[in-house]
Design goal:
Blueprint lengths: L17 H18 L1 H15 L1 H10 L1 H15 L3 E5 L3 E6 L3 H8 L10 H11 L4 E8 L6 E7 L3
Antiparallel strand pairs: 1-2, 2-4, 3-4
Length: 155
């Protein structure tokens, strides 16, 4: 019988990492219990500053269009429903339900008490050293439904 070889690369597969969110949630809860709320925020700031460095540079270069494109792509991949309004000075994202929170609840994972900081602190950190700021206008702990606002800082 002849040998058959199947060649695949990671790019052949749909990008999906939903169980990552459960692991992140567990890690955040551990850090919160052991070291406190500010340690959770410190961890997320360090992570976001490094991981989102290219996005931060793009935000400085192209403005809110860079964030708009990023969030559209992420929510498309994650299967989330959201509405976006974008002008050169403000980006507003209304998320019907956070895909991560939805996945964790559907699979019985505990959602960390500070899971909303993965939106709030990360968005604020993405905006550091840019002409823009971020605020989490609203957040529902049960569903992850949120309103996120990015806006041009005052001169």
């Amino acid at each position: 019988m002849p040998k058959e070889v199947m060649r695949r690369s990671a790019s052949d597969n749909a990008y999906l990492h939903k169980d990552f969110h459960g692991a992140l949630s567990a890690g955040l809860e551990y850090v919160h219990r052991r070291y406190g709320a500010e340690a959770v925020r410190d961890f997320l700031r360090q992570f976001a500053a490094s991981f989102y460095s290219p996005l931060r540079a793009d935000l400085r270069k192209r403005g809110l269009a860079a964030l708009k494109e990023y969030f559209e792509q992420i929510y498309r991949v994650e299967g989330g429903t959201m509405a976006i309004r974008c002008t050169p000075d403000e980006l507003r994202i209304e998320v019907a339900a956070c895909p991560a929170v939805t996945h964790m609840r559907a699979h019985g994972y505990a959602v960390a008490r500070m899971f909303n900081e993965t939106t709030k602190t990360v968005n604020e950190t993405i905006c550091e050293s840019t002409p823009f700021a971020a605020e989490l206008v609203g957040y529902d702990e049960q569903t992850g439904r949120s309103v996120q606002r990015f806006y041009r800082r005052s001169a």
